[in-house]
Amino acid sequence: MEKTRKDNSERPIKTVSNIVKDQSSPKIDPSSTKGGSSQMQLLSLAKQFVLDGGLIDAEQQVPLEERARKRERVNHLRRQQNLETIIQKALGYSSDNKITDKADQDWFESFLTLAENVSNRTMQDLWAKILAGEMSQPGTFSLKALNIFKAMSIYDAKLLAKACTLTVRDQQRKNIRIISGCYQKPGIFNFFNRDNEQRINLNNLGLSYADLLVLSENHLIFIQETESHTMNKKDDIVFNFDGKSLTLTPKKSNCILVFYKFTPWGNELANLINSHGSSDYLTTLKAQFSHHFLVK
Fold this sequence. Notes:
This protein is of the alpha+beta class. It is built from ten helices and eight strands. The chain is 41% helix and 13% strand. It folds into two domains: 77 residues, no CATH class; 141 residues, no CATH class.
């Protein structure tokens, strides 16, 4: 007996109601980190953004033009809600008695355009800190930094926070670096010394080279390592680490530090992060640099 084979074109298109009926999974818990099946999540987003009209039974569909107008209205309200939430959060970070310079209205308008589509609560909080910081001290955040931040995902923001736990700042707190190694310039007496160069394995501290590449692609750090000036015995160099002074004193002559340097925009955005310095990083730095430096 010959089996007949149905053409795919004859198969009925699943409607929203049919798809929902097919799902046997329990309702999604809003507090859970898991969002349910990919199909249910897509349907939920489609409904939230008013894009589920084509999935409804034809006889129940409203006209396409009316659906488009509804989507634009909903998106307009969502953007308004996002900005109002950010403003409310920013007020919580602002001073009510400190007199500051007049805010730049053009900067503020650009800020609104860049931040209006941010619905994630964590990212909204960071945008609020940007706004409060700029109101407190105009010129703190450039439009270039804001455009970079707009292109960043929540994962990128968390990666920046991780990198900030491994950073030191100069005494003026303007330049931020991740010290990655040190070495002594080769000479007649140390040319074959295996301990001449010391490196910090950042991967063991949770920051892989792939992470550094992502930070570089987001214009937050320079991927090419930079070197300090040549330091001689007892030629102290002082950094700020986790709010405390970190002093490196060479035990030998011709010692050089190697580090990844944050870009000017990376410096600006790093000011949003309130993470503490990694104690593991400090312990590793002291152990790895003990051959060339006294670290205290």
